[in-house]
Amino acid sequence: MRMRRVIAPFMATAAVSAGLLGTASPAHAVTTEFCTQPFARAGVACFYSDGDKITVQDLWADGMRSVAMWTTSYGRSGECHDANGANNPPTVCDYDFRENSQVVIEVVRREGANGANHDITRPIIGWTSGR
Got the DSSP string for the chain? Predict the structure, then answer.
């Protein structure tokens, strides 16, 4: 009796899992996430290869904003600012980068949009192709 109770839930789970796996679309895009060091004083930023999105999040309640500064391998550059306060959801910036290019990202803390840069993180390199 005990054996049936263990096998029956397993069989039901296996059947549901097989059904879910069988209905997945083969055309799903693969997104690769490239992120700076977690818990850095400047904040954290991530680049998502599918959709060319950059997120930046302020993790310290110090009155400053976190800014993700980015540069591409073909000379384009910009900034993504998280000025909504510490420990709130990250700010998402949506870009359209050239395919098969690199995006280098560093995060800094700033007082205001144009203040001096503080606590710059080590750079990360993301690829628009997701490699």
Answer: -HHHHHHHHHHHHHHHHHHHHHT--TTPPP--EEE--TT-TT-EEEEETTTTEEEEE----SS-EEEEEEEETTS-EEEEEE-S-TTSPPEEEE--PPTT-EEEEEEEEESSTTS--BSPPPPEEEETT--
CA distances 23 to 14, 31, 56, 83, 99, Å, are 14, 20, 34, 42, 29
The 10s digit of each residue's pLDDT in 83-93 is 999 989 999 99
pLDDT of res. 131: 66
Residue 23 has pLDDT above 50, yes or no: no
What are the structure tokens assigned to 105, written together?
A: 């990202």
Q: What percent of the chain has pLDDT over 90?
A: 69
